[in-house]
Design goal:
Radius of gyration: 11 Å
CATH architecture: Alpha Horseshoe
Largest sheet: none
Low-confidence stretches: none
Number of strands: 0
Number of domains: 1
Helix content: 40-55%
Number of helices: 4
Structural class: mainly alpha
Strand content: under 5%
Order of helices and strands: HHHH
Shape: globular
Length: about 70
């Protein structure tokens, strides 16, 4: 991902959230792993909409698999 110039921490101007946050929210474990392991996504990067992080969201949805991944 990084080699191609992709920014795994890019906050969407429309929604104010990061790709990692969305992957966690919608249960996409494989995408979550790729963003963290290959993209270097920051698990504690705050969204601009409410200041939440992907790690906080994983704990809110009580998904231990995603929380451990982060």
């Amino acid at each position: 991902m990084k080699e191609g110039g992709a920014d795994a921490d890019l906050v969407s101007p429309a929604s104010g959230v990061t790709p990692l946050y969305l992957a966690v929210q919608f249960g996409h474990l494989n995408v979550t792993k790729v963003l963290v392991e290959e993209g270097g996504a920051e698990v504690d990067k705050e969204n601009t909409d409410r200041g939440n992080t992907a790690l906080q969201r994983a704990s809110q949805v009580r998904d231990s698999t995603k929380t451990k991944c982060l």
